[in-house]
Amino acid sequence: MFKLFSKNAAITTKELENDLSEKTILDVRTPGEYRMGHISNAKNVPLDKIATYVGDKETPVYVICQSGMRSKRAVGMLKKKGYTAINVRGGMSQWTGTIKGGK
């Protein structure tokens, strides 16, 4: 059930870029979008497959997409599964750090 006033944890792309060490980053864009360029240690788990994600529930996961909308949805789904999930606001469209693949 969608909660209109639920507040999910979020950080900016700049905050993530400033500390990438030891972070679990999930990129919920499509495989094609991911191949066009992604954060080097990000794992591609498309939004339509996020329900199948299995990871360490003790470690926070940072979720990114292109603009922040799909990642926000994914965060809600992951939280229901017991993960500490943090949305990366602005997504890859705001990312100014190094990318792997693509261009």
Automatic annotation (TrEMBL):
Pfam families: Rhodanese. Residues 19-100 form the Rhodanese domain. This is Rhodanese-like domain-containing protein.
